[in-house]
Amino acid sequence: MLLNTPHLLVRHLLLSVLCLGCAGAAAAGLEATATPAADAAPAISVEAQTAAAKAGDAGAQYALGLMYAHGDGVARDDAAAAKWFAAAAAQGHAQAAYNLGVLTVNGRGVARDYGLARGQFEQAAASVPSAAYNLGVLYDQGLGVSPDAAQALAWYRKAADAGHAGAQYTLGQMYYEGIGVEANDATALRWFSAAAAQGHREAQYNLGVMAYVGAGMAADLKAAADWYRKAAEQDDPLAAFNLGRMYHLGEGVMRDDVQSVHWYRRAAAKGDAFALNNLGFMVYNGLGVPADPVRAYALFTLAAARDNANAKKALDLLRPQLGNEEVARGEGLVREWNAALKAGLAPAF
């Protein structure tokens, strides 16, 4: 039976969709307040907000748009939300312009139109970092505009300088891989560190990678384990897998197969094929967990179904050791665990 080596590729850009409610490395979504003071404002009834909005109060128009967008005190109505955001944006309300852009990108309440969304984000970008970040996404992917790496970089940098964690992560990725800029590990490290300090999971994982391989810094296995732990505690499967492997090998941490199994299980529960294979190895050999060839068979089968080469080799070695009844029990576990994984539940590995 063979253990898989660690996940060491820094993640690619996560820029495929702009969506309401997204955060971090995905595109930014609807934002609830224009200023911190708005959070402290007393609740105002829908009727009062509507009256003020109809009277031309931009703040009320924006607030009413939020109420309709979220179904807060009224039935959710995206068209009404877009209408009131547009009214406020026409009076220069930057947050409303940004939120209208989010609705427009998603085709919520209005037709999806990346070009119109770009204009709305441009109106907001001077004061709303998420708008600058989303402009970077649009230029990066060529959505409603010709792809332009220089423009994407400029907008990401504007958002990152304003503290946007997703933009900081993305800049780190671009400098690490040399996307639109000359590759520079030290600069990548700086931006990943800024995002990670805000709890950005993928940035924390990437710092673990860089500490492990010594990119932009001297290799530091303890630091790698620390960063992997931070990301793994946020349910990052790649970080959990790497941390499990480090516990098994005693890299940067005291060797502890019980901890290794714990983190492999966390990663395997997300369907990570490497983790499923390595957990099968631990179960087969009784490392950190009682030896159980039937459960190992099921784990190797799940990993092999996800195209893990080591798991396929393990099954070739393990099948001749099992009787028909044991194989049948193993296949039952495969069905049970597969159903749990598909339902987004953690199987009882």
UniProtKB/TrEMBL annotation:
The keyword Signal applies. Residues 1-28 form the signal peptide. The keyword Nucleus does not apply. SMART domains: SEL1 (SM00671). InterPro entries: Sel1-like, Sel1_AlgK, TPR-like_helical_dom_sf. Pfam families: Sel1 (PF08238). Keywords: Signal. SUPFAM superfamilies: HCP-like. It comes from the Bacteria. PANTHER family: ERAD-ASSOCIATED E3 UBIQUITIN-PROTEIN LIGASE COMPONENT HRD3, SEL-1-LIKE PROTEIN. This is Uncharacterized protein.
